[in-house]
Amino acid sequence: MNPYSDPDPQETQEWIESIEDALEEHGYERTRHLLETLIDYAQSKGARLPFNTTTPFVNTILPSQQPAYPGDREIERKIKSIVRWNAMAMVTKANTETPGIGGHISTYASAATLYEVAFNHFFKGVDHPDGQDLVFFQGHASPGIYARAYLEDRLNKDHLHNFRRELSKKGGLSSYPHPYLMPEFWQFATVSMGLGPIMATYQARFMRYLIDRHFMEDTGRKVFAYLGDGEMDEPESLGALTLASRENLDNLVFVVNCNLQRLDGPVRGNSKVIQELEGAFRGAGWNVIKVIWGSDWDELWENDHDGLLLQRFEEVVDGDLLKYVVEGGAYIREHFYGKYPELLKRVEHISDEKLAKMRLGGHDPMKIYAAYNEAMNCKGKPTVILARTIKGYGLGEAGEGRNITHNQKKLNQNELLYFRDRFNIPLTDTEAMKAPFYRFAKDSLEYKYLKEKRKALGGSMPIRTDRSTALNIPEISIFQELLDGTDEREISTTMAYVRLLTLLTKDKSLGKHIVPIIPDEARTFGMDPLFRQLGIYSHKGQLYDPVDSDQFLYYKEAQDGQILEEGINEAGAISSFIAAGVSYSTHGIKMIPFYIYYSMFGFQRIWDFIWAAGDMRARGFLLGGTAGRTTLNGEGLQHQDGHSHLAAAATPNVKAYDLAYAYEIATVIHHGMKEMCQDDKDVIYYLTLENENYAHPSMPDGIADDIIKGLYKTRSTEKPIIRLFGSGPIIGEVVAAAELLKKDWGIEPGIWNVTSFSELRRNAEEVERWNLINPNKEPRQSHLEMCLSKHCVPTVAASDYVKMVSEQIGPYVPGPYYALGTDGFGRSDTRENLRHFFEVDRYYIVLTAIRALVLDGKMDKSKGDDVMKKYNLDPEKPNPLMV
Ligand SMILES: Cc1ncc(C[n+]2csc(CCOP(=O)(O)OP(=O)(O)O)c2C)c(N)n1
Ligand SMILES: [Mg+2]
Predict the structure, then answer these.
(1) Which of 246, 378, 529, 800 is the most interior residue, by most CB within 10 Å?
(2) Is the Cα dihedral 76, 80, 81, 83 positive or negative?
(3) Rounded distance from Cα 124 to ligand 1 centre (Å)
(4) CB 79 within 8 A of CB 116
(5) Closest ligand to residue 140's CA
(6) Which tens digits make up the pLDDT trace of 349-362?
């Protein structure tokens, strides 16, 4: 409330009357103009007016502005009630039959109207002439979405019966939206809270990108994101709000289910979450539609001439509002209206029972329809609908509005009967107590209605399809200069990659499908020449003359620009990667994202998004630049990545490579593009790229397959007694170690390049598993065995990653296996010093090789000490992991 005490109410009233006149005679636009002009004027005269981003705690859309409801309310109510019932029955049954299997009843119970109005009137399906809307469903509202699919005949009783029992023979339903598990149903993985809102925002942005780049027409398709009010506390949820308004994403609609509760209790007990969210969204420039009150409240609000009801609502906090839900009418009368005798009078004619049941906005189809309708027609801004609902709506004593409601997994018999009565479910007591699934008869009005509504909107939702066609991947010879090597010229793998991208984007047929993505590091990676060649995407084009416009390679923004330059925003950039990576499905157009970033800010920072990308079957290339704990030398502890390959190895559809030479990069990327765009494999490639300069050899013949499998030989030896593995730039140390071994110790090791420890392990595991469960068949051989089993000699493996990365193949390598790696926090220093510090340099490789030969009985024990002395290695040197 305004704390200012009014010294001249008469004058205030006169101002209000002037505004009333303006409203009546000229409408909202003129009134707004007048008020804004007055405020601007006062501000220009030095009045410091408070900035207020919130509006009163009432509905944004007045009853007089509501459109007529285009549907049959009665039939829709019946359908909704049955969806509610089936959703509840599905979770109840699952938990009765398999205690502890989980699931949620209360979330969908609060969101049912939000979804049903959209299913009946808004969501466009794949066969709609405008194309499909993209909908991010609130993850744990999934039971309601399955329940509707059941009524539409898309799922059967067995599916519902096997909710959360995906391993059952008749097929089950995944707990949450997982496209990986239900690839023809779910489109987006949403249940890691906070990822949905930002991913939806970048989906809307990517849709624009495809339109601006002339891949498709603007047909008014929308992206909807259904979100929890508790979920809005995740930093990612609000993280891209200004991007959405800045880019005028009027194709984006957030629907926040404001039941005021999260898992443990109130989202904001001591204030109002709806008001807080309104402030955040309005401040960011969104169109905010608050749907707080249902039609039952229209009369009370209309009669609130003195603003007392509003004042009372502004006095109470969400904690109070939740208490009213639980305590009922008499309590509300006494504690809420009772504070002011005038308010008490206003509700005299309303019974206690009615007071308790006055419907809130999010449960009123009229109000929700009006909000969607406005969102559909809003131009130039994204829209958020803040809908007030009750968590566990209809559960009564079983959890309606109660703090335990989120974890309510089943109803007992009395609670089932209560629920049946509350929603008029046509079941007898005996039937209802068994919580059966209910389906409308095929000739019923309800069945016909729901089918017709969906047909008119282009088919059922959610649905995931792939209507894309294969892309023409050119021959690998387009990368010939990378295959030929650099002779004496020293370059980094990052430079080789940038060259590859330049060649690729120039390809006549494939080039335009490449989506380079970068979070403000283009210059770090030497990608700035691409600014001019490809342009940086900007819906607004370039409204200014860039400071470097006189230069050939200037900073070029363009409406049809190809590069997504995301700023310092890894979460946004990976969301763009995902949007591009699933474009084959969401838009029926194959795009190939190449997202390059500081490798430390990849898996470590945004692995959850990468996990979701895997779940959503995204395809594309992640490039961890400036990778390697000792290869990136000056940046120190925060920047040196020595472990992203561990995370990559644990992400099922990520194929990870640590590459040393330009031809390896060309081979892997070429192969990956074929897998993604010709063989339709849902794979993400992760390549680490480094910034150490050295000469790159030309590609030997016949090794392409081995590069993809993860291991190929670069140096053979006559009588092998030991072999060295190297990966990425550490191969340079390995080669140097081999020279020392020969020169100083008379040993000639074979040398192998490991391009992927994780691919080698996956292959070896797969073979091992096959051999395990096929004991009577001829055993198969892994790639490692095929390469190495001829000589059972010790192996020393060195990489710029923690030892576990190279150790992952240890059990499958014939002979003893020794791993060198970079465990511990990074440091800034020269590469040479760092490699010594982490004990991955040539001298430690030699030392380890000699020790391996000693233990193998091939050398005398004293040799170890000789090596230590010869290379000045200090036995007192502290362990890099511990210091
Ligand atoms: C990142 C993350 N943290 C925690 C959870 C566990 N979780 C699932 S639902 C939920 C509460 C959700 O509350 P809200 O967003 O308000 O949704 P509601 O169910 O109230 O609609 C929590 C904490 C999760 N799924 N994701
Ligand atoms: Mg909530």
Answers:
(1) 800
(2) positive
(3) 27
(4) yes
(5) 1
(6) 999 999 999 999 99
